[in-house]
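writing this on my phone so excuse typos. first protein, seq and then structure
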Amino acid sequence: HRGDRSHGRRFLCCPRRATSRCARGRPRQMEPGETLCIIEAMKVLNEVTAEADGEVLEICVADGDLVEFGSCLMRIG
């Protein structure tokens, strides 16, 4: 899902109301197509993938958190 931009920072936002199932715990490099986290919506697991090279700067949700459409999942750079 495309990240929103705010003051030069990018945020990976949740594409639907769901539960975070696999938030990774530390900042790291990412590559296009890499799975960054998994969200569960209506008993279906959905992978949220990177669209470009970059770095996960901050994980904004914990495993099991209920996240709303548009909520920030990760801050990326």
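second protein below, same order as before
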Amino acid sequence: MSETRYHSFAEFYPYYLSEHADPTSRKLHYLGTALALGLMLWAALSANWLLLLAVPLAGYFFAWVGHFFFEKNRPATFTYPLWSLLGDFRMFFEAITGKLDHSHFHR
């Protein structure tokens, strides 16, 4: 079974959203992204740059729990690391601003 190859983030993002159909998984992603952003802000404000080491742990831990236990799929990070990270941030900001297109969440 061959995997679709995406050539742009615009092509990839609908796929990314479809891989986050489970609401609990999305909430875990939002939690991880919020913690990662909070840690980055805390590191910058406190000049405690060691906090940056916890950023990927906070972000990926919750996201991967969502994928492995709720979505039961393989995180897109393994194939598209940069686009997946951008997708995380875009999905998070679209969710908190009420602009998230829920039509992509059907399986």
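The CA atoms of residues 39 and 54 lie 7 Å apart. thats all i got for now
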